[in-house]
């Protein structure tokens, strides 16, 4: 077999692996699975799909090693495969945002104008965490928090934030985070906190990005 034929065979394999990612629903499902293992019913709800449709997409991802499954009674749970899938999703996001200005506009629109929820950089957040001068607020659902969260984070889901404000210190800056750069939960949290007179900022990374960068994650 010639060198060109060898290269063609390799790149054909790569093309086959990339093909399942050419679907918005599958990318959304992967982003939710990256937050922690979930049953197909929950994934269908989060992605706004029927269970049957979600199952079809998940089977495509499973055949190519993007997800793995386990069965518990009648329920099938999905988790990410062993490959560096989060890193692949991050690279895809970065490439898309670099090449397509329209995606940047959509991100700003989706997040309800980020200038109202000033972001903090990873470097500054690490420094503030080391100084113990910030309260880290995870506004994801409790089951996602339990499967992995940033060290020292407090979990108050966005839906419970207003009635649990007393659990947050008034004298310390609050940094809210959720599922990553395209998640609006932390934006809404920051806006709500500021309306109550609290000092709040947003961290636009989630647990998958934090782990991919080599930082520790706690479980509870």
TrEMBL record:
GO terms for molecular function: DNA-binding transcription factor activity; thiosulfate-cyanide sulfurtransferase activity. Residues 130-219 form the Rhodanese domain. It comes from the Bacteria. Residues 6-100 form the HTH arsR-type domain. It holds the Pfam family HTH_5. PROSITE patterns: HTH_ARSR_2 (PS50987), RHODANESE_1 (PS00380), RHODANESE_3 (PS50206). SUPFAM superfamilies: Rhodanese/Cell cycle control phosphatase, Winged helix' DNA-binding domain. NCBIfam families: HTH_metalloreg (NF033788). PANTHER family: FAD-DEPENDENT OXIDOREDUCTASE (PTHR43031), PYRIDINE NUCLEOTIDE-DISULPHIDE OXIDOREDUCTASE (PTHR43031:SF1). This is ArsR family transcriptional regulator. The lineage of its organism: Bacteria, Pseudomonadati, Pseudomonadota, Gammaproteobacteria, Vibrionales.
């Amino acid at each position: 077999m010639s060198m060109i034929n060898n290269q063609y065979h390799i790149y054909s394999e790569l093309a086959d692996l990339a093909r399942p990612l050419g679907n918005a629903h599958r990318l959304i499902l992967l982003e939710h699975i990256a937050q922690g293992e979930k049953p197909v019913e929950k994934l269908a709800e989060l992605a706004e799909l029927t269970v049957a449709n979600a199952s079809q997409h998940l089977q495509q991802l499973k055949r190519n090693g993007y997800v793995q499954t386990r069965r518990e009674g009648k329920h099938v749970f999905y988790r990410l495969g062993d490959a560096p899938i989060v890193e692949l999703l991050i690279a895809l996001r970065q490439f898309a945002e670099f090449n397509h200005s329209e995606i940047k506009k959509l991100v700003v629109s989706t997040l309800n104008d980020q200038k109202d929820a000033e972001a903090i950089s990873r470097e500054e957040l690490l420094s503030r965490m080391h100084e113990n001068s910030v309260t880290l607020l995870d506004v994801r659902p409790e089951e996602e928090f339990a499967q992995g969260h940033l060290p020292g984070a407090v979990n108050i889901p966005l839906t419970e934030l207003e009635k649990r404000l007393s659990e947050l210190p008034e004298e310390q800056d609050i940094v809210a985070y959720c599922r990553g750069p395209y998640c609006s939960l932390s934006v809404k949290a920051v806006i709500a906190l500021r309306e109550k007179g609290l000092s709040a900022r947003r961290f636009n990374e989630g647990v998958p990005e934090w782990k991919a960068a080599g930082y520790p994650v706690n479980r509870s």
